[in-house]
Structures are given as structure tokens and as C-alpha cells.
Amino acid sequence: MAGRAGLRFVAGGRTTGGSALLVGPRVEVVETREVRFTKSPGLFQRGVTLARLRTQTGESVTVASTHLGLDADERVHHLDDLLAAVGRLPSPVVVLAGDLNEGPDGPVWRELGGSWVDCGAGTAEPTFPARRPRRRIDGVFVRGQALVTGCRVVVHPDVLVASDHRPVVADLDLGVAGRRR
Known about the structure:
The chain is globular, with a radius of gyration of 16 Å. It is of the alpha+beta class. It has a single domain, classed as 4-Layer Sandwich (Deoxyribonuclease I, Chain A). The chain has four helices and ten strands; from the N terminus they run E-E-E-E-E-H-E-H-E-E-E-H-E-H. The strands form three sheets. A six-stranded mixed sheet has the order 3-4-5-6-8-7, with helices on one face.
């Protein structure tokens, strides 16, 4: 799949409960990590896949992909694991994307919204289920020296084959800090 999209697989998959990272050909992968969250008895293993990347123009960014659980208490507990993992791979810009399995009114989403920018806050487009989306449970959040220049939910027939969620695409300007000097 990555190759057909002109991307390459960086990390993730089964070890993190299915979350993975793919990058474009002009992105340098500096470091990757796969972190399993504390497993809740009787529930699926969850985790986060992280990578520190360097763009063609030299900007450093850490990206993280996660898929939180269906249980509300577990999601709140895993938020601590998630933020600790992200904190161990610092960069001037950190991007966190994933299926939070709750909407913007949920406790995890609200906690992230307190210190991160919700890239899709202005759109409120639903992402789940892919065929007839009714809920916005997938998001992209950014923290640090970046400007969100756009965010959209992808609507395309291929989405129905690829996932039961509609993908969220956030456009970021990572060169903001350099121009402020």
C-alpha cells in the first residue's frame, strides 16, 4: 500500500495495536519508536508509533500515530502513556494523529485541546463510519512552531476500501519559526 501511494513504511503495525507511520520520499527518518500502552485485561493491545523526521529544508518534527480504545476509562489512562512517549522524542514541532474513539467533547480530546492545536477544530467534519460518517473521532493535533494552513477529511471511493474511517489530512507550515527571526 505504501509503495502504491509513493510512500514508505517507517514503523508500527502489530506491536502498537495497528497504528503505523508512512512518509514521503523526501523526508529523512532520524529515529523511530513503537510504544505499547499498559494493556487492560480483556481489551486489545494499544500503543503509539513515533518518528522524529527532518524535512528537505531542515525542519525537525516528531510525528505520532495512535489508536485509542473503545473503553472511556482506558482512553484516559492511555493518554498519560501517550504523552509520556511523545515527551521522550522532543522536537520543535510535534504532530499527533489518530483514532481517539471519542469526539471533541470527550475527556481525552478536551485534554489534548488544552495544550495542542486541534487542526480540524474549524471543520467538524465527521470521520466515522466511512460510508455514512456521523461522528468526528479521528483527529490531528499539533504543538510547537507550526502553522496549520488547512485540514480536511478525505472523501473518495478508495477510502471505503482502505478503512472504516475517513482519513484526516492536515497541512502544516513548519518554516514559521525561521521566518519570525
